[in-house]
Design brief:
mainly alpha, two-stranded antiparallel sheet
């Protein structure tokens, strides 16, 4: 299934609630941070678009392939954590 995934203020809030840190402090070398941020972006975009998304972070991570994670980070996030391009969809199993 494909879920909407884009950077929103809600995603930033979800990331902070889950990690206790601001998204601007997210490390590009920390796979946990990247997965939590992807989950937050997907949960937020899904909520906004009216798409049912009930996965926990672990369930979301279980459904991701490494290529999806790398593509998201390369395409969506610059080194300062800001958005680089238009919204995409994240493929999950």
């Amino acid at each position: 299934m494909l879920y909407p995934c884009r950077i929103t203020m809600g995603a930033m809030l979800r990331f902070k609630r889950e990690t206790g840190r601001d998204v601007s402090l997210m490390s590009s070398d920390d796979i946990s941070d990247i997965i939590v941020f992807m989950w937050a972006c997907t949960a937020s975009a899904s909520a906004h678009d009216g798409v049912e998304f009930g996965m926990t972070i672990e369930q979301f991570a279980d459904s991701l392939e490494p290529d999806s994670v790398q593509a998201f980070y390369a395409d969506e996030v610059s080194s300062d954590g800001s958005k680089k391009k238009d919204p995409e969809k994240v493929p999950t199993a």
